[in-house]
Structure formats: C-alpha cells, structure tokens
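We were asked to recover a plausible sequence for a given structure. The inputs and outputs are reproduced exactly as logged, with field labels preserved.

PROBLEM: sequence recovery
POSITIONS: 197
GIVEN STRUCTURE:
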C-alpha cells in the first residue's frame, strides 16, 4: 500500500476576496476560518500520522487546529509555502485589474509570471519534489499538509496531467481537502469541498 497525502487549504481570512496576500506578513485566520478548519478535521480520513504546514501564519494557525484535534506535533515545510507573487504582493484585486501582466498571468498561466515572483513551473517543481520525497521520511504514513490555493493547485495539476493554462478547472476553496493516494506509479485524487464560504 502506498502513502496517502491530504492537501488542505488554510481557512478563511478577512482579506481573502479583496487582496493578493501571498507571503505578506500578518495575514491570520478570522473566526469563520477557524470554524471552517474545525469542521474540516472531521472530514479527514484516513487519519494522519504527520502534519506539515506552510510557514505562513494563516496556514500555521489552520495546521495547529488540526494538530490539536489529532493530538499530533506540527512540522513546518517551506516547500509548500505560498507562491511568491513578487511585486503583486499586498495589492488589491481592483488595482491588479488594470495591470496587463496580471491579465496575462490569468489567461496564460503556463508562460506568465508575477513580476519579481515565482512561475507556476517553479512552484510546481518544489511542491511535487516535496510530495514525491515524503516516502523517504515517512514511509507509508498518512501525511496532512496545510498550504495555499496555488501550491495545492500546482500539485493537483501535475498528478492529474492538467496544463497550466487550464488552471481555472482546478478549484481550491478555503478549508477544502484534496487527498492523493500513491499506489506504485499511479496517483488517485479525491476531493472534498471546503465548508461554506
């Protein structure tokens, strides 16, 4: 039997619909986000043996709630950090609408790149390398990883063989759970939507 990896997006925060937070400091869960993650814990089967988190506060808060629920320690994994949005970090979506590079990024994700930021190719490479190497450390243990929409999307697109430009076909809602079951050379994906936004 192969390993199982639950990819969990952090819960809701106050800026989620208005600003491209990326790696901006000080972005934390709101009360709704904490409740989402509490409800998320009940939907995670099989139960994890290891919990990892992106270093961003909203992810660490979400992972800490899950770690407490399962009675497990929490590991920080920089490989599943949020994508680096470079110069776009902290800009509102209204501001970005007039930026032609933003429009290119959202129509041609395979060739676009945030200014001074990270491409989808580089993001996918670091996340997938981390997931593929998990077995070296954990064997066939079930692992739960709390991350962000773009890193999770990049992983799902890799294992489902979806082109970068089709990124809109892969929704990753707050507190959603995407489970990867590795069985030899095959990866099976099951998805559970997040708690109501």
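RECOVERED SEQUENCE:
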């Amino acid at each position: 039997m192969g390993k199982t990896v639950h990819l969990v997006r952090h819960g809701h925060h106050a800026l989620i619909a208005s600003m491209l937070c990326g790696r901006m400091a000080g972005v934390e869960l709101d009360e709704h986000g904490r409740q989402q993650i509490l409800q998320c814990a009940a939907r995670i089967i099989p139960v994890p043996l290891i919990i990892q988190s992106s270093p961003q506060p909203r992810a660490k808060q979400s992972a800490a709630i899950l770690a407490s629920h399962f009675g497990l320690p929490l590991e920080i994994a920089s490989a599943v950090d949020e994508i680096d949005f470079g110069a776009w970090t902290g800009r509102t979506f209204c501001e970005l609408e007039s930026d032609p590079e933003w429009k290119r990024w959202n129509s041609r994700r395979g060739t676009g790149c945030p200014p001074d930021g990270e491409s989808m190719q580089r993001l996918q490479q670091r996340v997938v390398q981390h997931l593929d190497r998990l077995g070296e450390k954990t064997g066939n243990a079930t692992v739960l990883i709390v991350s962000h929409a773009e890193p999770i999307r990049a992983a799902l697109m890799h294992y489902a063989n979806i082109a970068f430009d089709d990124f809109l076909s892969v929704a990753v809602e707050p507190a959603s759970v995407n489970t990867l079951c590795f069985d030899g050379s095959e990866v099976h994906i099951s998805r559970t939507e997040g708690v109501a936004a």
